[in-house]
């Protein structure tokens, strides 16, 4: 086995050696092992491929990891398991890498690399998505092999002190104590120098948003099944004085294809900071209650904000589009999105609402009330006739029993 003169590398022999990422001084950014004389480590044996395997660094969340890619015909092994041609594997401390039976290495990260508590317990895998505040990854618990989702909130300069306060730890303890079938379970948290990690149970079927888009709109039966769960999940949180504050279809996750759902992302204001959270909400206010759009001195964060947001989601489920939108602004309707929300101006346009019965519309009207004191509570939502009815009626597309169907409504009294 030979090495390129410009690259420091471990030597071969009967004993295992340590291979560290900083050993490579190659400008290519990778560390190549193979039979070709230009490789960083040259193994002169005909069963070794010209370019047998490649080590390279990759940024993942707030960390830098080392990945091994198998380029060989005959195999590269990590801990006695073959990787497979053109496949990759993230390396962990003390992994044993074997190039057939010709060379073996023990992988070590540099001593200067700070090992995080999260990475000691979990393996970070592919990115699942990205939101305003965090990136979401798939991760695997090393001790059990169970898969979870992890939200990674990168810390910015000056934020570390705020996120290590005793108050935050108390808030996280409250969130970890939440246990309800319709609220996403927070399994573990890691408050580290560069990021906060929230390890969550995995919802296999993705967001309610994508489900609505795929179906265009939901039937009343489907919507009712969803909202029994959502109302109960929010009631559980409200009974414990937890206000979600960011309810939207993207934060309602589908557990399976049978319309079982869980609420996600509750309590984020405590994680990312009150000011940042409110600024982001007010920047995209489609689901935000009118009182949150008020002047900061008059802003009220009560349980009623969740009822408003659920009312917007209920409206969207039944027709496929939101009640408030800048696209509705016109010469005849000169109100932008914020003005529509603050005045409670919305309609039930025909033909989209023609098949939806009055009970559903009445519930929406009771939830989208500008005055939070007059807005329905979660208990009132759960006890509303549209939620409790079981017998189908002629004017409810899937199960209603009330009055004539209204194609369009805009009662002035509802706006305040």
Observed structural traits:
3 domains; transferase; six-stranded mixed beta sheet; Phosphorylase Kinase, domain 1; ATP-binding; 18 strands; Tumour Suppressor Smad4; 21% strand; elongated; 12 helices; Transferase(Phosphotransferase), domain 1; disordered C terminus; protein serine/threonine kinase activity; alpha+beta; Kinase-like_dom_sf; 416 residues
Outline the structure in words.
The chain is 25% helix and 21% strand. The chain is α+β, with helices and mostly antiparallel strands. The protein folds into 3 domains: 2-107, Tumour Suppressor Smad4 (Sandwich); 117-200, Phosphorylase Kinase, domain 1 (2-Layer Sandwich); 208-415, Transferase(Phosphotransferase), domain 1, CATH 1.10.510.10. Strand 7 (76-78) and strand 8 form a beta hairpin. Helix 5 runs antiparallel to helix 8 (304-319) and helix 8 (304-319) packs antiparallel against helix 10. The radius of gyration is 28 Å and the shape is elongated. The chain starts with a strand and ends in a 28-residue tail after the last helix.
Ordered list of secondary-structure elements with their pairings:
Layout (H helix, E strand, L loop, with lengths): L1 E2 L13 E3 L10 E5 L6 E2 L10 E8 L2 E8 L5 E3 L2 E2 L5 E3 L5 E4 L3 E5 L9 H5 E9 L4 E7 L5 E8 L5 H4 L2 H11 L9 E6 L3 E6 L7 H8 L4 H20 L12 E3 L6 E3 L4 H5 L1 H10 L20 H16 L17 H7 L14 H10 L10 H5 L2 H4 L28
Parallel strand pairs: 2-11, 3-4
Antiparallel strand pairs: 1-4, 3-5, 5-6, 6-9, 7-8, 7-10, 10-11, 12-13, 13-14, 14-16, 15-16, 17-18
InterPro entries: FHA_dom (IPR000253), Kinase-like_dom_sf (IPR011009), Prot_kinase_dom (IPR000719), Protein_kinase_ATP_BS (IPR017441), Ser/Thr_kinase_AS (IPR008271), SMAD_FHA_dom_sf (IPR008984)
GO molecular function: ATP binding; protein serine/threonine kinase activity
Family: Belongs to the protein kinase superfamily. CAMK Ser/Thr protein kinase family. CHEK2 subfamily.
């Amino acid at each position: 086995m030979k090495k390129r003169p410009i690259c420091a590398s471990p030597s071969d022999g009967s004993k295992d050696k340590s291979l560290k990422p900083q050993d490579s001084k190659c400008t290519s950014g990778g560390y190549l092992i193979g039979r070709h004389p230009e490789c960083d480590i040259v193994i002169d044996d005909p069963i070794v491929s010209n370019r047998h395997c490649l080590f390279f660094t990759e940024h993942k969340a707030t960390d830098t990891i080392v990945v091994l890619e198998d380029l060989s015909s005959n195999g590269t092994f990590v801990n006695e398991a073959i990787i497979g041609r053109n496949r990759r594997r993230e390396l962990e401390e003390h992994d044993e890498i074997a190039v057939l039976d010709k060379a073996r290495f023990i992988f070590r990260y540099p001593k200067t690399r700070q090992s995080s508590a999260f990475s000691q317990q979990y393996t970070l895998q592919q990115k699942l998505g990205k939101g305003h505040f965090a990136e979401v990854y798939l991760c695997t618990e090393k001790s059990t092999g169970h898969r979870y989702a992890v939200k990674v909130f990168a810390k910015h300069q000056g934020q570390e002190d705020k996120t290590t306060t005793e108050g935050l730890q108390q808030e996280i303890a409250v969130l970890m104590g939440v246990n309800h079938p319709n609220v996403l379970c927070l399994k573990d948290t890691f408050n580290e120098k560069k990021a906060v990690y929230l390890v969550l149970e995995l919802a296999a079927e993705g967001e309610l948003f994508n489900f609505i888009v795929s179906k265009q709109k939901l039937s009343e039966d489907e919507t009712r099944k969803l909202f029994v769960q959502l109302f109960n999940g929010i009631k559980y949180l409200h009974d414990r004085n937890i206000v979600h504050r960011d309810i939207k279809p993207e934060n309602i996750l589908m557990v399976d294809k049978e319309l079982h759902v869980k609420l996600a992302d509750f309590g984020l204001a405590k994680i990312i900071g009150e000011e940042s959270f409110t600024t982001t909400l007010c920047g995209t206010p489609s689901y935000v209650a009118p009182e949150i759009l008020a002047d900061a001195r008059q802003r009220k964060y009560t349980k009623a904000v969740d009822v408003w947001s659920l009312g917007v989601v209920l409206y969207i489920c039944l027709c496929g589009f939101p009640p408030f939108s800048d696209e509705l602004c016109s010469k005849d309707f000169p109100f932008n999105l914020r003005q529509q929300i603050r005045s409670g101006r919305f309609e039930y346009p025909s033909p989209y609402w023609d098949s939806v019965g009055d009970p559903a519309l009445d519930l929406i009207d009771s939830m989208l009330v500008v005055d939070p004191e007059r807005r329905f509570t979660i208990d009132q939502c759960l006890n509303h006739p549209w939620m409790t009815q079981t017998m189908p009626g002629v004017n409810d597309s899937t199960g209603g029993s009330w009055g004539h169907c209204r194609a369009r409504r805009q009662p002035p009294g509802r706006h305040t």
